Amino acid sequence: MLRWLPEDVSPYGAGIDALFYLIYYITAAAFFLVTFLMIVFLIRYRHQEGRRAIYTHGNTTLEIVWTIIPALVFIGLGIASKAKWDALKVNIPETDTIIQVTAKQFNWEVLYPGPDGKFDTADDKRVENEIHVPAGKPIRVILKSRDVIHSFFLPNLRFKQDAVPGREILAWFQANKPGKYEIPCAELCGFGHSGMRGWLYVMSPDDYAHWVAQQWPQSGTQVGSVQNTTTATGVLH
After folding, report:
1. pTM score
2. Is the pLDDT of residue 20 over 80?
3. Contact predicate 140/88, CB 8 Å
């Protein structure tokens, strides 16, 4: 199996990679088959003196076969991916850590709710292009956009979600390995698109607690701990 994807540090990435490689191999097999047949036909039906061209209206059986086979492949891929889609997009795990990420031309605006667990209060902390999270814990993200469509992309976590103007989109990710990981924008969003980049800092629980203490020195409450739960619709109750 090819190993050119970025290192996976998420608990769900292996399943996504397996689907990717399955599609990759099916596509590669189709490419080599079509290329081989083209070469065979070029040789077999090349110009020869004295041979007249033959006109045909096609082969109905053959056309049905090459229509049904791709259809079955697509249906199979859809069935195989449904469980993974539900786990990543529908069944968002419970967690007490939530952040808000607002995309704008051309950076990421990150909002932490602070020790009171509520957004838009005095203890909120707003930074740009930096996200600090503890390792091994689900993180809920409320995605917004101030202007155009952006795409919040974490290649090492196999996470990608569009941020759409006028909408709040709830998503989640989890990183199991401490480190620094890139957050590019994966949707063309203007002339500064290529420079729209942030960083995800995944920290050990002790290092994360130390970072929290530095940001909110007067409180021992974990940053992002919400007093109210967040539903899958992105509405706080």
Report:
1. 0.79
2. yes
3. no
